[in-house]
Amino acid sequence: MSTPSQPLPVPAVVSRIAGGLPVAAVWVNELGGVTFAVGDPPTAFVKTYPDGVAHLLDDEAVRLAWARRHVTVPEVLASGRGWLHTAALPGRSAVDARWTGRPETAARAIGAGLRALHDSLPVADCPFGAPSWIGEGAPPPARLVVCHGDACAPNTLMADDGSFAGHVDLGDLGVADLWADLAIATMSLDWNYPGGEWEAVLLAAYGVAPDAERIAFYRQRWDDEPARPG
């Protein structure tokens, strides 16, 4: 998942939803999906996917609706074949320019946000299986939780005071070991805040000591997956 390096064409469905408001592509993922911000500042987002993976947005819409009863995630306003329209949440991505220069604050918010997610989403009531990239043969879980499924730094939102504000991109949400999220969240710190050692900060904010075996396992599973939504 990355920020587009140049303006991208705006699909007709996005223009229709925008109704004359400014539109800008803000994220491109590994599956060819593009997320557009509507309004300046954004009041909504429209995620678009190619036909071959359009069903993944149906999966995300269902997960957002379920998770929203318990945690702060975007409200689904409308959806259709290959597009998902959600309301904007207050806050900025943890990789916004405001936070990339304050990596310790960002790492702390990501850890606190994942702990809040894991503590709030009810495993017993979750209708979804494990995130798609985990596969079989995982170590016995340290603790089963409802995982974000793509716990990379950009998917945590932060308030202006540096605290956790919400989560986005929950298309692979499902039940798994807490380390399925923590292994990927800590790995993503090196991508987004290079030159520092922030893993300990994130894990301390979550409230857990490192588990080298489970971290290595889930990172390897993540790397084995050729592409994923976002």
TrEMBL record:
InterPro entries: Aminoglycoside_PTrfase, Kan/Strep_kinase, Kinase-like_dom_sf
The keyword Transmembrane helix is annotated on this UniProt entry: no
Gene Ontology BP, a term: response to antibiotic
Span of domain Aminoglycoside phosphotransferase: 35-129, 137-218
Superkingdom, natural source: Bacteria
Gene3D superfamilies, A to Z: 3.90.1200.10, Phosphorylase Kinase, domain 1 (3.30.200.20)
Protein residues bound to Mg(2+): 155, 169
UniProt-annotated catalytic positions: 150
MF annotations from Gene Ontology: ATP binding; kinase activity; metal ion binding; phosphotransferase activity, alcohol group as acceptor
UniProtKB keywords: Antibiotic resistance, ATP-binding, Kinase, Magnesium, Metal-binding, Nucleotide-binding, Transferase
Protein family per UniProt: Belongs to the aminoglycoside phosphotransferase family.
Protein's recorded name: Aminoglycoside phosphotransferase
Source organism (scientific name): Mycolicibacterium obuense
